[in-house]
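Weekly modeling sync, notes
Attendees: S.R. (lead), two postdocs, one rotation student

Agenda item 3: backlog of single-chain predictions. S.R. asked that every request posted to the team notebook include the full sequence so nobody has to chase files. The rotation student volunteered to paste the first one in as an example of the format we agreed on. Action items at the bottom.

Example entry:
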Amino acid sequence: MKVTDSYSNDVMRYTAAYTNKADIIARKKPENLPQYLKNLQRKFSYMTLCADRKMNMQQSSRTLTVHPDLIRNMQQDPLKEAAYTQHLKSIENLCKWIDGLHKVRGYTAKFHHWYIDENGRSCHFAQYERTDKTSEKLRAARQKNTQALITKTRKNSAEKSRKLKESLQKKKAAKLGDSAQKQQKPGLYLNVRI
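Predicted structure, as returned to the notebook:
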């Protein structure tokens, strides 16, 4: 008897949960597709959402095309709507991350096109161009540093050259002074050059 009671309680609990879910779905009147997409687009500022059965590559530089059957499933089931909205948000965040990564490397995205089919699987197509803006900045900085290093090296070598000439002149003057002193001393000096 306890088994029957617990079984009937479980059945009633599941039935109540199912009818509550059905009531929520029934109370929520499905919007037409363009209106639903417009409301959904408010959550996504980085990408343009559109509904089509194939990848749409004509909207803008960053499009996210969702199959219409998936959108209908999202409209009818709040749990699927939450899950797929989170999936779309993660795709948008991934797109931002990829763009940032390529921007650091000197590339810019010409376009990003994402497509999500009726089963929720996604595919991606993108094209990037090399901009070389960072390379130009780095090249200018390297050239400036090289010029500064060259002028510093020239200045140091001129200073060393001047000091070397002064020391050579002092040594030459010292030698001349020594030879003059030697000649003034009494004695016989033989100065033979061949």
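Discussion: group reviewed the output briefly. Residues 133-184 form the longest helix (52 residues).
Action items: rotation student to repeat for the remaining queue; S.R. to check formatting next week.
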